[in-house]
Write a structure and sequence with these properties.
heterodimer, A: 314 residues, mainly alpha, B: mainly alpha, MetI-like fold, two-stranded antiparallel sheet, 76% helix, flat
Chain lengths: 314, 287
Amino acid sequence: MALPREARRPLPAAVAPLRRRTLADREDWLGRLMLAPALVYVVALVGVPFALALALAFSSARSGSLEFSWVGLRNFWAILPDPQFHRALWNTLRFTLVSQALVIVLAVTAAHVLSAAFVGRRLVRFLLLLPWAAPVALAAIGWTWIFDSTFSVINWTMLWLGLTKRWLYWFGEPQLATAAIIIVHVWRMFPFATVITLAGMSAIPQEISEAAVIDGAGFWRRFFQVNLPLLLPIITVAVLFGVVFTSTDLSVVYLLTRGGPYNSTHVLSSLAFQRGIFGGDLGQGAAVALFLLPVLVVVAILMLRTARRAEVGA
Amino acid sequence: MRTRRLVRYVKRGVLYLAALAFTAFAVFPFYWMFLTAFKANRDLYVGGTVLTHVPWIFNAPPTLEHIELLFRQTLYLTWVRNTVWIGVVVVAITLVLAVPAGYALARLTGRWGERLGIGVFLTYLVPPTLLFLPFSRMIAWLGLQNSQWALVLVYPTFTVPFCTWLMMGFFRSIPRDIEEQAMIDGYSRFAVIRKVVLPLGISGVLTATIFAFTLVLQDFVYALTFISAVPRMTVSLGVPVALVRGDVFYWGSLMAACLITSIPIAVVYNLFIDRFIQGLTAGAVKG
């Protein structure tokens, strides 16, 4: 980025006068040629389905047949008064916000721990990353077993420690099911946020912290008034990714609770799946899924803004 | 003096304790998978209210029964094979599309290339949740219902944007001077790419390969939407959805499958995680 204009320009032909210029030297065309296949693929298989997602929401399309007819806002009139839809919208918001709040606290703490030098740091980092690296569906099924209604090891431990007197049916009570889903989301996302925060921390010049020490700032003061503000952009990036991955995730809810008990833990994605695939009503499913779009647009805008600010600052 | 040393010891102690707590939280489900995979049934299926039976350790000698069952009597290996061939084809498609595109965005397209690069990356944020319904319709148009080719077609929609972005960052980190020197020596741009850039970028290509493959393994939504025939499933779908016979969960084999699949991926992933983070945060942390 810092290179002056001259340096960016392709070298003058005079330097290599012996060889004829071919297509391979026409940089603009070569660039377009190399870019085109990827671009075509993305437009055809992200752009087109995206447009189709919008179109489906205004249609009466059903799975199993290919007919397609416009019904205007009918799907929206069907879901907007639907309490199950309200619940799913609220759950998506709730699960995402609560889990991301916990993730920030855990990740910033864990990053501070990991940035200190201690024996076995690399091993700890490796182990911390396991939840993020393991396929989410397999991890979710592991948790299903951990929260099992008869054999839950969490319940055993809590009973043994005297933390609870009664048996907890994790997937039988709405509150517990909510807690279980949030725990799994936090477990999955915090390692990712930790590593990102850590990357941000290593980018902060050591002198700043040292200067603060010399000026007499204590740990907490350094943390809240020096480190945290400097880390803010990178934490924002971690959270934005976290929001996207959590709010749009289907596998955790699907495998843990299937939206139960009594449809109390459905999120937009699982409800869209139930209506669109199980129920066969593609139109209504698409209408439900469409409510994820505002979240994604906001995230995209914030992401671009963070990126731009970092670029200006650099 | 003595109090200062004491304070230091306490600080160390807190540090180790915190590290231990985080690790325990992260690892505990995998430890539980491990125990379950090797426990004999009489040790495994003891109700959680029996406080005298400690579930955290082996109370009876470990057994290989569940592993044997998994490999001999379930479709686990078929799913692994399916995943591998789908993964290999998707990786090939991804590299063919993403490596040239990444280079073009890094070097050849100037100002608008940068914008386009960000645009490509944003498409990675468009989630499967938004696209699986229109895809199910498109797959039906193409007549690919219940076919693994549907997955081969759809998976590059997230691997290509991600790997393009990754490769773009990677090619940018190669010093321009090297390429320019080669061109002064009489190479064309194309020859420079082939003879100078690609050999230097081989570790970037390897990173892209690993991540494309792991992204394929991570998918659950698309596989769930498109594939209903059990023998055609991928690991990430088959294990949670179809490794259940009747109403009885075979938890031992199920957890063995989760563990055996997750651990190798996690190990490889860990080796490349720094590059992954660099790729994701390329905008925010200036590389």
